[in-house]
Amino acid sequence: MISMMAKDFFVNSPVLALPLVGLGIFVLGFVVVVWQVARTSKEDIDALAALPLTNNPPEERASGNTAPRNMASRNTARLDASPRNERNAS
Questions:
Q1: CA nearest neighbour of 57 among 46, 67, 43
Q2: H helices within the chain, ranges in order?
Q3: Is the pLDDT of residue 13 over 70?
Q4: pLDDT tens across 31-41, in order?
Q5: Which structural domain, as residue segments, surrounds residue 70?
Q6: pTM for this entry
Q7: Chain centroid to CA 52: how far?
Q8: Which of 27, 29, 37, 67 is at a distance of 20 to 30 A from 81, taking alpha carbons?
Q9: Are 22 and 65 part of one and the same domain?
Q10: Rounded Cα distance, 63 and 61, in Å
Q11: DSSP 3-state assignment of 14?
């Protein structure tokens, strides 16, 4: 009895189109991502793969400066500018 009522309710329901719309959006997004990955050149992928291994901040990588910086001086500059050191100095 209930299954017959549910069948009659869902047969005429416009809400059943929403999962199909969601599936279509997902498939479209998936195809776009696969297309972008397939179009990416090997040089771009190698550059992205090397990002975690570089010692330069992003702004230096963007400008083409690939010389490594001294990490100790960069860390000292961060410590000198921290609010904690300003509180302790007074």
A1: 67
A2: 2-11, 17-39, 42-49, 58-63, 71-80, 83-89
A3: yes
A4: 999 999 999 99
A5: 42-90
A6: 0.46
A7: 15
A8: 67
A9: no
A10: 5
A11: helix
Number of domains in the chain: 2
CA distance 74 to 5: 71
CA–CA distance, 85 with 69 (Å, rounded to integer): 24
**Cα 34 → chain centroid:** 15
Residues 90 and 48 in one domain: yes
Can you tell me which residue has the tokens 């209930």?
2
* Per-residue pLDDT tens over the stretch 45-83: 888 888 877 776 666 666 665 555 555 555 555 555 555
Question: Nearest 5°: phi and psi at 81?
Answer: -90, 0
